[in-house]
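Batch manifest line 227
LIGAND: adenine
JOB: complex structure
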Amino acid sequence: MKFTVLTLFPEIVEAFFTSSIMAKAVERGLISYDLVNIRDFAYDKHRTCDDAPYGGGAGMVLKAEPLAGALDSVGALEKRVVFPTPSGVPYTQKRAQEYASLDEIVLICGRYEGIDQRIIDLYVDDEVTIGDYVLSSGEISSLVLIDSVYRLCDGVITQESLVEESFQNSLLEYPHYTRPEVFRDLTVPEVLMNGHHAKIEEWRMEKRIEKTRKNRPDLWDLKKSIE
Ligand code: ADE
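JOB STATUS: finished
ARTIFACT:
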């Protein structure tokens, strides 16, 4: 799968692609990426990428021309273009799974107050929000999307790791323990120590339900309503 990222700060995004599990996935040819600097498509003397909003108001808007140039340079009209923005639809694990099944997504990293609406009208397929808060850097929200998607791509991490994680089944994940057996007087639950597989599964399911009801009653209600 390929991630094409349009950004004014490629160095922020590059760091993620050249570190840790992602770096290995790139090296193994499972993931590829293309970072496009939007400023390379600003042709005025000062290579301006932002301007004041028509109609007045606070902040600056990312201009249409450099963004359109960057989008055309990657053939965006034929590709799935995703714009992370606080005004988008909620981003979910289901959408991450859908993106992971595609050959490529093109991400636009917004800055300032937003981007010229005509870019959204002409190029953007999905506007998604990663949560009800506002970030100043679209690079961060794009990286959230990239991280959630690439790990689902074939071969990146073991299938087993994906099976019981949070949001599978609309349930959150069960608690994990590793050595030592006693840490500051707290012991690992007995059931995990005795190797009885069915009992362990039963305990883990109980914990998932308990945690979901406590931390995410909204998810629990949704699960009940569709069962
Ligand atoms: N950019 C700034 N804030 C954002 C948010 N909450 N979700 C997605 N992109 C954003």
